[in-house]
Design a protein that fits this description.
With 210 residues, the protein is mainly alpha-helical. It contains eight helices and two strands; from the N terminus they run E-E-H-H-H-H-H-H-H-H. A two-stranded antiparallel sheet has the order 1-2. Helix 7 packs antiparallel against helix 8.
Length: 210
């Protein structure tokens, strides 16, 4: 939908005619979960396999991992709906959206240079989300949740980029998936994270200028 301020709002933040909010949220979360499985599993699977656990245990761990991402989707959907409602109601807010989008991209890029990012990235690259020793007597589901939490914090900036630039854009999805996989799998992790940060800042500045 074309909005004041020369930007386009995705219809995924709005109900279809005759659709309940519960049905709308369910549709979004199913799409979000499928997207997260496709984007995160290729880079998370090697970490799971390092635990040397049975296939059933790994499946339970993966369930815990994606429960965290599903919970994140609930929060993102709530924020997206509130954001869309504000943009529809107040023209001044709608016209400020490109500026807010640029600022969000710059903030996401800056986060890539922080100590929080590096700590979370090391945790995400380690089994069970732990940089140091982690209790292996924990349940598989809880360990999966711990890994998912570390991964979500690590991927806060790429997730922000995905939401701002468009979750329905295939090029954005592929680009963010490549960034996440490169951060988790390629050495050195700091270089990849900071390169992605520079790219996000450049796109954010370009958004603000244009």
């Amino acid at each position: 939908m074309e909005m004041p301020g020369r930007w386009t709002m995705s219809m995924m933040w709005m109900r279809m005619p005759g659709q309940t909010w519960f049905a709308s949220a369910t549709s979004f979360l199913l799409m979000w979960l499928a997207m997260m499985v496709a984007m995160m599993l290729p880079s998370a699977l090697p970490t799971f396999l390092k635990t040397n656990r049975a296939p059933v245990s790994l499946s339970v761990m993966a369930s815990g991992y994606f429960v965290v991402w599903l919970a994140a989707g609930v929060g993102i959907y709530a924020l997206g709906v509130a954001f869309a409602a504000a943009a529809m109601r107040w023209e001044m807010f709608s016209r400020a959206v490109p500026t807010l989008s640029g600022a969000a991209l710059i903030a996401a890029g800056a986060f890539q240079f922080t100590r929080w990012k590096m700590t979370a990235l090391l945790g995400c690259r380690s089994p069970f989300g732990c940089v140091t020793n982690c209790p292996e007597r924990e349940t598989n589901f809880r360990l999966g949740c711990q890994q998912g939490g570390a991964c979500f914090l690590c991927c806060a900036a790429p997730t922000t980029i995905l939401v701002v630039l468009g979750m329905m854009n295939p090029l954005v999805i592929v680009g963010v998936a490549i960034i996440i996989a490169a951060e988790k799998l390629l050495p050195p992790p700091e270089f990849v994270a900071r390169l992605a940060g520079v790219a996000a800042i450049i796109v954010g500045v370009r958004t603000l200028i244009w």
